[in-house]
Amino acid sequence: MTTVLCVPPWQGSASDRAPRLVAGARRTAELVPAEAVVTVPVRDVGGQQAAGIRALAVPVENQRLTREALAGIEDRVIIAGERAGDVSEHEYLARTGLRRHGVDDEEAAVIRRLGAALAG
After folding, report:
1. Can you give the pLDDT at residue 84?
2. Which comes out higher in pLDDT, residue 24 or 49?
3. What's the Cα-to-Cα distance from 91 to each of 27, 50, 67, 87, rounded to whole Å?
4. SS3 state at 22
5. pTM above 0.90, yes or no
6. How far apart, in whole angstroms, are the C-alpha atoms of residue 10 and residue 54?
7. Pairing of strands 36-39, 76-81
């Protein structure tokens, strides 16, 4: 069984039109043939810039929500939307033994180190 995980946040983007990414993530999730679609209930608010990232606290919270959503899925997952899901994706891949399409081992190692830095 395949589940589409829709992760529709927009915070962190430098574009003034970033909120439109929400509709794009949802539309993408609708187009993927799968048995189930799970939408992460991300926060839809802005915030202050920190560490050079617009609304940093919001993507950090959205990352936690993405982890929670992935923890409840045992199927193959296709993620539609936010690339900030990388940390959660790699935790999921480590738990399930699956691999992310198109990612080589070197890139995966970099993403895992980033995830560890964010978590620690």
Report:
1. 45
2. 24
3. 26, 25, 8, 6
4. helix
5. no
6. 10
7. unpaired
**Helix-helix angle 86-96:57-71, to 10 degrees:** 20
Task: Output the CA torsion 30→101→88→91 (10° steps).
Answer: 140
The answer to whether 114 and 87 are in contact (CB under 8 A) is: yes
The domains of the chain are located at 2-119
The C-alpha angle with vertex 87 and arms to 86 and 91, in degrees rounded to 5, equals 115
How many whole angstroms separate alpha carbon 45 and alpha carbon 70? Answer: 22
The CA–CA distances, whole Å, from 41 to 22, 72, 107, 113 equal 11, 14, 28, 26
What is residue 53's DSSP assignment?
Answer: B
Residue 47 sits at φ, ψ, to 5 deg, of: 175, 180
Question: Is 82 in contact with 106 (CB distance < 8 Å)?
Answer: no
pLDDT at 8: 85
